[in-house]
Write a structure and sequence with these properties.
Elements lengths: L2 H14 L10 E8 L2 E5 L8 E5 L3 E8 L3 E6 L11 E8 L1 E3 L8 E2 L17 E3 L22 H6 L9 E4 L5 H10 L6 E8 L3 H13 L6 E6 L5 H19 L4 E7 L1 H14 L13 H9 L13 E9 L8 H9 L2 E5 L1 H5 L12 E2 L8 H6 L3 H15 L7 H16 L10 H12 L8 H4 L2 H11 L1 H13 L4 H18 L1
Parallel strand pairs: 8-12, 10-14, 10-15, 11-12, 11-13, 13-14
Antiparallel strand pairs: 1-2, 1-6, 2-5, 3-4, 3-6, 4-5, 7-9, 15-16
Helix pairs in contact: 5-6, 7-8, 11-12, 15-16, 16-17
Length: about 500
């Protein structure tokens, strides 16, 4: 074979076996950048919510798709980005790491560790945006989520898979209620996710310290987007946290997620939208903030075994101005959730902790989220308090009162004193049952007003040493109900105890 033929054969084989790997990538250019928002030219095929890559491993998310340009929110530091810098599509949506490796960790909304510990390495990630579970996916909310707070467990019970709003003015104990609920999940098999939005670093630091001291960080993940972070980072924080919770829900586990708070989240979204030159909507909030929060909170659910069998219980926090729950953002979230715990400034300032307004607070799941024991014993408490507050308002203008009115006011005042509970001092459910029994059986009338303040403390001490009480406690735990026989035994034992403290 001639050299020419040999060379020709080699070339033909090369051409025949040539593997042409062509990769197509679209690249745009920054035409302006300011306040964490970049305007990009040239990304014709970019999708809404797509992750975009800037120089120096900085990322952003496409949020505003216009005819010629794309509005992008930038995550993290953007000071190095300049006009003319290249921007590449990733053809991926924004995702966050998920799994048990996140327990005990403090992360940013992109899942990067910010607690000074080792980097988080996971095999699985989930998109931060997702369609909420449909009706056929869900099952009824029937299992109680015990808060350890007597006023809530008795009057405003929360079920696993429920969305219960915590609402009130600044400094009324909203975060305290949420943190106490997290602490009470220690032996309940519930994983927790706490989302800090727009808070001061020092405030979050105090919360973390308390969780660590109580051993609660073992089953808790904190997603932090504090006031020092960009509006874009604060905007995606709750969605990232929900994605983390969904991984556990679909693995037959129960999760509690706290959003602290969605008022600041709405403000961050407003800032982002106005910087993107979106037209402002109602109440100067751009777009529709109702949709913003509904697509988030609807993702909390109790799902059937076919779809994982777990649950996500959401406790969003909303801050009101001068107790106005009819304002735009509060009414939005009230209509999305399954009830609200309303905290009153007047009650808080008078020393009532937690400052729960029994009239405006409600749980639309109700007794379905209570054990038979608590359901039976807490039936009359809301009615008694409603009568108390109504008569109290009128009694201020009355010169004299009949004996029946005095008795209702006296009982109501004593109930309010019994419901006072220090922060970080949760009650087991059997202890709650003892206190509720005193209210339900009308035994409060036998306790002098000056002894009511310390009654709970004395009862807690008595439960540790009183043999009769211990036997009844065992029955509570075993039966999770109150039989006629046990009711009779408890009444006799409680009357003896009350006589000893008078």
């Amino acid at each position: 074979m001639s050299k020419a033929v040999e060379l020709s054969t080699i070339i033909k084989n090369k051409i025949k076996n040539y593997n042409l790997n062509i990769s197509e990538s679209e690249e745009g250019k920054v035409i302006s950048v300011a306040d964490g928002i970049a305007t990009i030219l040239g990304l014709e095929k970019v999708k809404s919510g797509e992750l975009l890559k800037f120089p120096k491993d900085t990322f952003g998310m496409a949020l505003n798709l216009e005819e010629d340009t794309t509005g992008v929110i930038i995550f993290g530091d953007y000071s190095h980005i300049r006009e003319g810098d290249p921007v590449k599509r990733t053809d991926e949506v924004v995702e966050v790491p998920v799994g048990d490796v996140l327990l005990g960790r403090i992360v940013d909304p992109l899942g990067k560790a910010i607690d000074g510990k080792e980097d988080i390495k996971v095999d699985k990630q989930r998109p931060i945006e997702r369609v909420a579970p449909g009706i056929e996916t869900r099952k009824s909310v029937t299992v109680p989520l015990k808060t350890g707070i007597l006023a809530i467990d008795a009057m405003i019970p929360i079920g696993r898979g429920q969305r219960e709003l915590i609402i009130g003015d600044k400094k009324t104990g909203k975060t305290a209620v949420a943190i106490d609920t997290i602490l009470n999940q220690k032996d309940e098999g519930v994983k927790c996710v706490y989302v800090s939005i727009g808070q001061k670093n020092s405030t979050l630091g105090n919360t973390i310290r308390k969780l660590e001291e109580a051993g609660a960080m073992e089953y808790t993940t904190i997603v932090a987007a504090n006031a020092s972070e960009s509006n874009a980072t604060q905007y995606i924080a709750p969605y990232a946290a929900m994605a983390i919770a969904e991984e556990w829900m679909e693995d037959n586990q129960d999760v509690l997620i706290v959003f602290d708070d969605l008022t600041k989240h709405a403000v961050a979204y407003r800032a982002v939208s106005l910087l993107l030159r979106r037209p402002p909507g109602r109440e100067a909030y751009p777009g529709d903030v109702f949709y913003l929060h509904s697509k988030l909170l609807e993702r909390s659910a109790s799902v059937s075994e076919k779809y994982g069998g777990g649950s996500i219980t959401a406790l969003p926090i909303i801050e009101t101005q001068a107790g106005d729950i009819s304002a735009y953002i509060p009414t939005n979230v009230i209509s999305i959730t399954d009830g609200q715990i309303f905290l009153m400034s007047d009650l808080f300032n008078s020393g009532q902790r937690p400052a729960v307004d029994a009239g405006k607070s409600v749980s639309r799941v109700g007794g379905a989220a209570q054990t038979k024991l608590i359901k039976k014993l807490s039936g009359s408490i809301k009615i008694q308090l409603a009568s108390y507050f109504e008569l109290k308002a009128f009694s201020q203008f009355a010169s004299d009162m009949d004996e029946n009115t005095k008795a209702i006011l006296d009982a109501g005042e004593k109930i309010m004193k019994l419901l006072v509970q220090k922060q970080y001092k949760s009650y087991p459910q059997d202890v709650e049952a003892f206190i509720l029994f005193v209210i339900n059986e009308g035994l409060l009338s036998k306790i002098p007003m000056d002894k009511v303040d310390n009654f709970n403390n004395l009862l807690l001490k008595e439960l540790k040493v009183n043999k009769e009480f211990k036997q009844i406690q065992k029955k509570f735990i075993k039966e999770k109900a109150l039989s006629d026989e046990t009711q009779k035994e408890l009444k006799e034992a409680m009357e003896k105890f009350i006589n000893t403290i008078n």
